[in-house]
Amino acid sequence: xxxxxxxxxxxxxxxxxxxxxxxxxxxxxxxxxxxxxxxxxxxxxxxxxxxxxxxxxxxxxxxxxxxxxxxxxxxxxxxxxxxxxxxxxxxxxxxxxxxxxxxxxxxxxxxxxxxxxxxxxxxxxxxxxxxxxxxxxxxxxxxxxxxxxxxxxxxxxxxxxxxxxxxxxxxxxxxxxxxxxxxxxxxxxxxxxxxxxxxxxxxxxxxxxxxxxxxxxxxxxxxxxxxxxxxxxxxxxxxxxxxxxxxxxxxxxxxxxxxxxxxxxxxxxxxxxxxxxxxxxxxxxxxxxxxxxxxxxxxxxxxxxxxxxxxxxxxxxxxxxxxxxxxxxxxxxxxxxxxxxxxxxxxxxxxxxxxxxxxxxxxxxxxxxxxxxxxxxxxxxxxxxxxxxxxxxxxxxxxxxxxxxxxxxxxxxxxxxxxxxxxxxxxxxxxxxxxxxxxxxxxxxxxxxxxxxxxxxxxxxxxxxxxxxxxxxxxxxxxxxxxxxxxxxxxxxxxxxxxxxxxxxxxxxxxxxxxxxxxxxxxxxxxxxxxxxxxxxxxxxxxx
Length: 544
Ligand code: FS2
Ligand code: SF4
Prior knowledge:
Layout: H1 25-50, H2 56-68, H3 77-100, H4 119-135, H5 141-166, H6 172-183, H7 192-221, E1 227-230, E2 238-242, H8 246-256, E3 262-265, H9 276-279, E4 285-288, H10 296-302, E5 306-309, E6 325-327, E7 337-338, H11 345-353, E8 365-368, H12 372-377, H13 379-387, E9 393-399, H14 408-416, E10 421-426, E11 440-441, E12 444-445, E13 447-451, H15 456-470, E14 479-484, H16 488-499, E15 506-508, H17 517-527, E16 530-531, H18 535-543
Parallel strand pairs: 2-3, 2-5, 3-4, 5-6, 6-7, 9-10, 9-14, 10-13, 14-15, 15-16
Antiparallel strand pairs: 1-8, 11-12
The structure holds FE-S-O hybrid cluster and iron/sulfur cluster.
Iron/sulfur cluster (SF4) binds near residues 9 and 71.
């Protein structure tokens, strides 16, 4: 196998025997095969679009399938076999429509690829293709590095686009971009600069995808407002909902209303409590249980109710608790029950069969809901606090959490940041410090939870609005970005920030393994992108 798409890749290089995430070489090969089939589908979809044929099914399928190959989403070989066959069926249905208009369908190797008839043969096909793909690195390792950056970034964009389309937000330009990038990923005639341009285009289109998702979330659930969330539990039956999918959370809340079951959020669903249409409509959305994804084996083990994974990050479940874990949407794992969101009866039955909490516990509260509308609603106060010197500097300390050592940096940094500075955060990286009592500056909380990693758009909008208020560009603001990355959405967000020309970003805990020294040097020279060092050193540099 060859996979280096996430931060925990083996030895900081590549997973080649078994995924550090738990992905098997067989599933890895099937994921690569699926991407290969999507590339053929994209070629045909572009041709179909040029003839005015509707390709909405193929567009949405492409987003969902790229999302399914993201780290910690789907570990099921059976699912990927079905996805490969569906990709071919969708491709062939477009070819028939093209031919029915009197045109020959595109005649390339990937558009004509024929999948084998059984799982073992499909795995072999995936491994052969992988070998061929890696072979490209021999021609120009820096271009290969950028192709990986583009593919991984595109997976992140697909995740955002998938969430947006679930909420009814579409964009034809975005779909065309997906297809164009996939259809041409094998191109041999482009220069390093041209691949770099495409890399930044991924960042540009990710901004569009995040904007769509922001519109989908706020139109459906209202603008988040600052909301205290209990970290304790109450007596009674319980369901724990993890992942990022607010629509799935709402469906679970709807179907559990009146059952007496309390619903708790886990991981990246903490910010759900800030959405008025969720919190106010469903009083049985009780509180938040647990922390970031890498702690789930311990936290799920002890949760006395049913557990639902709506998206990443799923870890291979332990035998001791796997019978109470359910998957939804693009998530899959062999042996876990996959449920349709239209009928969650098996989840409710499991929650009722399990003991639930038998004792109250009080673990205090945290406040979420400081998304762009809430922060910009008090923009004058914030601007005045900066002008008067009460706020010296803003830090955005956000991104992903992870299991590898070195991430205590983020806790230590936040604890060391002086009391006249404000810390904005988002993503599951916040769980390193989300319950710290940092106080406030003239009524402005020093720790502002902007939301999920899916809400990076909010952070960008806040930075742009502050820059306008101070009549400077974003790079001149008293603002430092200190990001933590783990998976491919973080790559997409980083590309967006680079596309926007944001300088001086610090990233950690390590640089992506898929960046060659030359590409990393190029990014560092152009954008002053740098690796984190120590909290003390970075803090001094940011405040200096
Ligand atoms: Fe965290 Fe995992 Fe949010 Fe990432 S729950 S690292 O894939 O999506 O952030
Ligand atoms: Fe390894 Fe990450 Fe790929 Fe999993 S997703 S196989 S941990 S690089």
